[in-house]
Amino acid sequence: MSGIYGFYSKVTNKPKDADLDILKRWNSIYGRDGHNYVENNNFGLGCHYEKISVHPQETDCVFEIDNRIFSIDAIVYNREELIGLLHLNEDDNNISDERLIARVLINLGVKGLRNINGDFAGAMYSEETGDLYLFRDHMGARTLFYYMGEGLLAFSTDIRGLTSMNDVKTGVDESWLFSRISGRMLLSQTQTSFANIVCVNPGCCMVFHNNGNKIESQLECYWKAGEKKTRFKSDAEYIKRLRELIEDAVKIRSEAYPGGCGAELSGGLDSSVISLLLGRMNKAKAFYSWSKSPEALPYVDKDERLAIKEVCDLTGIECGFCSDEDMNSAEKIVDNVTRSVVGNIDENLQFAYRNMMPPYFNVVKMMQVLAYCNNKGTKVVFTGHGGDEGVSHRPNVYELYRNHEYYHYFRNVWATTHGKKNRPACFLREVRNNLSTGKDILTQEAKYDLNADAFINSDFADRMSQKKYQAQTFFFDPISYVREGGSRPRLELMALFGGYFGMRYVAPFLDYRVIDFALTIPRYMYIKGKMTRYIYREAFKDILPKSIYKLANKRTASIHSERADDGWYEYYDRLRKEILDSLDKDLWSQYLDFDSIDDWVKQGKPQTEEEDVTFDRNFYFLGLCEMINNCLHKQA
């Protein structure tokens, strides 16, 4: 694991030393075993690395080959294949992952990156051409952000390294903010919450070169998900191939790290398959659930923890559950790392991690997972993230019609009318509803109940409502969903928190071979009558407990039986007021209606379930604003 950073500029636009120090400090979170930095008049490349994998690692971390200078953050899972492809000598078996990727670029060019199965991001400066290259892995498992202003480009693994630089001119990205607060769908592989700061496209390389007084860029993509359809002669071949790819994706990743592996275990199909495969490979060491333990919260009907227990019994691995002890441990780790990197910023805030971190709902859970697995001695946590996005996939029958699989479409609709009176009439009615109302619901612009419309400044709302937003393609167009960045938010959190804990989150379902295969096979393989996710269930039918194999939807019954602590409101009311006091009113009055927010604060403690939901939702959006507000805080 590494944090990489640097700049590219006209000579007169080189960043100040203070700004370079900011980049260095924020990226030190991602690697504390070594550091190197190289620069000349118009470029600088830096790297902080941390030894996690069993592979040879480039301890110099910024290195030169054939007049090209590299800074790379990488773990490669198909080393032997690449060594053979490059015709390297036997002595080169000890080549580092970083140099292996560098050799791919030198020998095969940008297109050669498609052959790398790994999680990577990197920078290359060519002394021959004077060009800078920034590149990322197929699905964007490793983060890499950049800012391009007048004559200056700066890049960083950690986005806060850029927002904190005095020479970086940024602010709130208005379309991002409006989509989040209003509940619109706005997926993007590159857009961030900050103006003028974007991500390097996954599966691509950005090439920058000086053209007089201007830096120009060119995008070169080496891979795009779902480009070529896959066709076999039988359903059995599709099922067998999916099983082979997923098993191999788990295997090669588990072998890249020392000792055993941790895994998130929710009781759903995706996490259960990964946990069971790790168990069968004798690589499982620790499982962790986002639910509370049965001792703290008794079992209820359709409890997901019963499914978790079945997986644990089959693997012989104990599962940890969310606890205050793990939360305290996580907060101490994040607090200590943050303070060591950026100092005691904003001492009035209760925890240092609140200074700059996103308040997404799963942040606390992810921190607890890492704290628990860290205490168990693992350096890696496997997650089922990416399964829903395209591999196990939750389809709507309309997807078959949309992909011109008419025979299977009508056959599946017919199957859903089994046992109904006047079945032909019921069938025609179902088809009509699915292709009219059902289609419209799926394909229209998404608007979620999860919004805080009342908080939006009316002028801002009028201006931004003219923009066209996206449909929820998750259910009927997984190729678009993946290409547009549906996996991205969680991946960025995985990279961020992996850095804080000196660990790595791994998502085998986002192995580019797995997701490409799953996206390009016939859509009917995912739905058979009333059974969805058909191919995935069949691929692992022999190892899944029957209760999980037949699971229609992921169960979260235990969450609904939890009772809030008596003092919860006092704590969050105090926190809410701290957040409002911290916001820059000159900035946020352009976007937020503070009169409406004040009215909400005056309402006091929620008295109904609906008011509870509104409180949680509004608090979440204030947290988003606080994150942006604090990230825009310039460091001395």
Structural topology:
Layout: E1 2-9, H1 17-27, E2 34-39, E3 43-49, E4 62-65, E5 68-76, H2 79-85, H3 97-108, E6 118-126, E7 132-136, E8 145-149, E9 152-156, H4 159-163, H5 174-182, E10 197-199, E11 204-211, E12 214-221, H6 235-254, E13 261-264, H7 269-280, E14 284-292, H8 304-315, E15 319-322, H9 324-342, H10 363-375, E16 380-382, H11 387-391, H12 398-402, H13 406-416, H14 423-443, H15 458-464, H16 478-483, H17 488-501, E17 504-506, H18 512-520, E18 527-528, E19 531-532, H19 534-539, H20 546-549, H21 557-560, H22 568-582, H23 585-588, H24 594-602, H25 609-631
Parallel strand pairs: 13-14, 13-16, 14-15, 16-17
Antiparallel strand pairs: 1-3, 1-9, 2-3, 4-5, 5-6, 6-7, 7-11, 8-9, 8-10, 11-12, 18-19
Structure overview:
With 636 residues, this protein is an alpha+beta fold. The chain has 4 domains: 2-221, Glutamine Phosphoribosylpyrophosphate, subunit 1, domain 1 (4-Layer Sandwich); 235-390 and 483-560, Rossmann fold, CATH 3.40.50; 398-443, no CATH class; 445-474 and 564-636, no CATH class. It contains 25 helices and 19 strands. Strand 13 (261-264), helix 7 (269-280) and strand 14 (284-292) form a beta-alpha-beta unit. Helix 10 (363-375) runs parallel beside helix 17 and helix 13 crosses helix 14 (423-443). It is globular and about 80 Å long.
